[in-house]
Amino acid sequence: LLSGEAGVFDEAEMLLLTELRDDVSFALDHIDQAERLKYLAYYDALTGLASCTLLVERLAQHIRSLADQQLFAVAIIDIVDLLSINETLGRAGGDQLLREFGARLASIIRDRARISEKQKPPL
């Protein structure tokens, strides 16, 4: 609602408009949070690569769609001593390494959902 004049809306209308604004704002925040949670359930926030959950789901779909006796491969790449890299370069350096590694993998493999970053749980 818009008015070119001040004081057009009475106190009850202003209260109603304020409550409506707050409700719409809450709903939009809730939608944004739900979309972010859905994204984080399937993608790593640091690298943007598929999470282990999404990889397993896609792998299961692929296996179900295969004809009998059809072969496929799964490659596992491990960054050795990432803890040492974090200790030497700091966490920001280790994170930058993971982002760069993820970007290089993504440039080779078009479907980012086929690339997953499996992280070890924190100690």
Write the layout of secondary structure elements.
Elements: H1 11-42, H2 52-65, H3 82-108
Overview of this protein structure:
The chain has 123 residues and is mainly α. It is built from three helices and no strands. The protein is elongated. It starts with 10 loop residues before the first helix and ends in a 15-residue tail after the last helix.
Name the descriptors.
mainly alpha, 59% helix, 123 residues, single chain, disordered C terminus, elongated
Q: Give the count of helical stretches.
A: 3
Order of helices and strands: HHH
Give the uncertain stretches in residue-range form.
Answer: 119-123
Structural class of the secondary structure composition? mainly alpha
**Integer average pLDDT:** 80
Percent strand equals under 5%
Quote the distance from N terminus to C terminus: 54 Å
Count of beta strands: 0
Largest sheet: none
Shape descriptor reads elongated
- Proportion of helical residues: 55-70%
Radius of gyration: 24 Å
